[in-house]
């Protein structure tokens, strides 16, 4: 990594996209061996601290901030509501943020060490981007996905490894997660589906995150 002075810290950069969009990066104390790109980065990037106390490889979290307007957030995160807005955010997230990450932090981004993560509507984003860019993301981490974006009858020929989780007290989101797990398994994908005690937005998302990282990037 280019700058060891930022090891163990958070770095925020504001991009020109959509009038100014922040991206917050958690930089692990040791040189990163894996990178997780996430929506709602103002919240999820902070979960990097929980990784420090677990036995997982040093993992960088690159979090594009999500909008507070829920309608516009859904339009950016799910391809089914506003195709043009989704495509613009997709380009920003997959191309601009990724290129900046490699340049700013001097990290390699091999597919097998890169994941995309999201919760709720962000879970739809993770699924959509993972399926559309399997050459970029080798793993999908998805917690309690929303129901706008659904599996298609014909799935892509190449599907990243996928880890889904949802809570027993959020039946709508649990059903969505289980629907995705079944569809991806039917398509031959490597899938983990966890049903946890918890409600939507609950702490079980944060607790599950290190387990996702360990599953995808744990040392042999």
Give the neighbour order of strands across the main sheet. Answer: 1-2-4-3-5-6-7-8
**Beta content:** 15-25%
- Poorly predicted regions are none
Tally of individual helices: 7
Describe the main β-sheet briefly. Answer: 8 strands, mixed
On the 0 to 100 scale, the average pLDDT is 94
**Number of beta strands:** 8
* Global Rg: 16 Å
Can you tell me the overall shape? globular
Content-based structural category: alpha/beta
Helix content: 25-40%
Provide the fold topology:
Elements: E1 10-15, E2 21-26, E3 34-38, H1 41-44, H2 48-52, E4 59-64, H3 70-77, H4 83-105, E5 114-119, H5 121-132, E6 139-143, E7 161-167, H6 171-186, E8 191-196, H7 204-217
Parallel strand pairs: 3-4, 3-5, 5-6, 6-7, 7-8
Antiparallel strand pairs: 1-2, 2-4
Helix pairs in contact: 3-5
Pfam family, one: Esterase
InterPro entries: AB_hydrolase_fold, Esterase-like, Mycobacterial_A85_antigen
Protein name: Esterase
Question: How does this model look, in words?
Answer:
Helix 3 (70-77) packs parallel to helix 5. It is built from seven helices and eight strands. The chain has 220 residues and is α/β, with parallel strands linked by helices. The protein has helices at residues 41-44, 48-52, 70-77, 83-105, 121-132, 171-186, 204-217, and strands at residues 10-15, 21-26, 34-38, 59-64, 114-119, 139-143, 161-167, 191-196.
């Amino acid at each position: 990594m280019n700058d060891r002075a930022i090891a163990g810290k958070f770095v925020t950069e504001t991009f020109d996209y959509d009038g100014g969009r922040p991206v917050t990066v958690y930089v692990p104390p040791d040189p990163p061996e894996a990178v997780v790109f996430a929506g709602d980065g103002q919240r999820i990037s902070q979960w990097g601290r929980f990784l420090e106390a677990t036995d997982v490889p040093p993992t960088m979290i690159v979090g594009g901030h999500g909008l507070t307007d829920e309608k516009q957030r859904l339009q950016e995160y799910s391809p089914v509501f506003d195709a043009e807005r989704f495509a613009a955010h997709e380009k920003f997230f997959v191309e601009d943020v990724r290129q900046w990450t490699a340049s700013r932090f001097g990290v390699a981004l091999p597919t097998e060490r890169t994941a995309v993560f999201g919760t709720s509507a962000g879970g739809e984003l993770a699924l959509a981007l993972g399926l559309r860019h399997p050459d970029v993301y080798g793993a999908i981490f998805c917690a309690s996905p929303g129901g706008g974006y659904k599996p298609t009858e014909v799935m892509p020929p190449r599907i990243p490894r996928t880890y889904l989780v949802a809570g027993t007290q959020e039946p709508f989101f649990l059903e969505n997660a289980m629907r995705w797990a079944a569809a991806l398994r039917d398509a031959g994908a490597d899938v983990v589906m966890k049903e946890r005690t918890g409600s939507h937005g609950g702490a079980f998302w944060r607790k599950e995150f290190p387990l996702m990282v360990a599953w995808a990037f744990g040392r042999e």
